[in-house]
Design brief:
This protein has 152 residues and is an alpha+beta fold. It has a single domain (7-146), classed as ph1033 like fold, CATH 3.10.590. 20% of the residues lie in helices and 29% in strands. It is built from four helices and eight strands; from the N terminus they run E-H-E-H-E-E-E-E-E-H-E-H. It has helices at residues 19-25, 36-45, 116-121, 144-151; strands spanning 7-12, 27-29, 51-56, 63-70, 75-76, 100-101, 103-115, 139-142. The strands form two sheets. It has a six-stranded mixed beta sheet. The protein has a two-stranded antiparallel ribbon with strand order 5-6. The longest helix is centred in the N-terminal third of the chain and has 10 residues, at 36-45. It binds a DNA duplex (12 and 12 nucleotides) through residues 11, 13, 35-37, 57-58, 62, 116, 133-138.
Length: 152
DNA sequence: GCCAACGTTGGC
DNA sequence: GCCAACGTTGGC
């Protein structure tokens, strides 16, 4: 990893796992990521304590609904070894895991979510990864300046 | 290693 | 439900 982004954004479909679920659980293993770029961010980039924007996708009002943080180092995603899991990967072995994850901890819920619509309107954010055309990455980095703009 | 086919994501 | 974008797979 060339640069060292320290701010992140993770996407989740709220019907599968929402910011309210994270609030209830306090923390959760960010399991099931099966994209190499997203994996590399978690495995090689994320450090304990890094702030994470929690984004709700595929829902009536997509946007950032809360703040979380990285609370563990990267470790092998156990679901890749579980043949009964939909995330099972027969090519992975315990000696040579393919997929990694970190634990994500709850920080706060944003009472007025920062909607995708609002993000698109802010000229300062047009370059952020989330808004780049066709970006479907479920874990991505966020510039410090972008994070501060969104928190204000 | 190329590239067409296929699958998934996610906004609308 | 549609469709554009794009990552992954697999035949050659």
């Amino acid at each position: 990893m060339k640069s060292e982004p320290r701010y992140w954004l993770v996407k989740s479909e709220p019907s599968a796992y929402s910011i309210d679920d994270l609030k209830k659980d306090k923390k959760t293993p960010w399991t099931g990521i099966r994209n190499y770029t997203a994996r590399n961010f978690m495995r090689d980039g994320m450090q304990i304590g890094d702030p994470v924007l929690f984004y709700h996708s595929s829902c009536p009002v997509p946007g950032v609904y809360g703040i979380a943080k990285v609370v563990s180092k990267a470790y092998a995603d156990p679901t890749q070894f579980d043949s009964s899991s939909s995330y099972y990967d027969p090519k992975a072995t315990k000696g040579k895991p393919i997929w990694y994850l970190v634990d994500i901890g709850f920080v706060e819920k944003i009472h007025e979510p920062i909607t995708l619509e609002a993000l698109k309107k802010d000229k300062r954010l047009t370059k952020m990864a989330l808004l780049q055309r066709g970006n479907r990455l479920s874990v991505m980095s966020v510039e410090e300046s972008e994070f501060k703009i969104m928190c204000s």
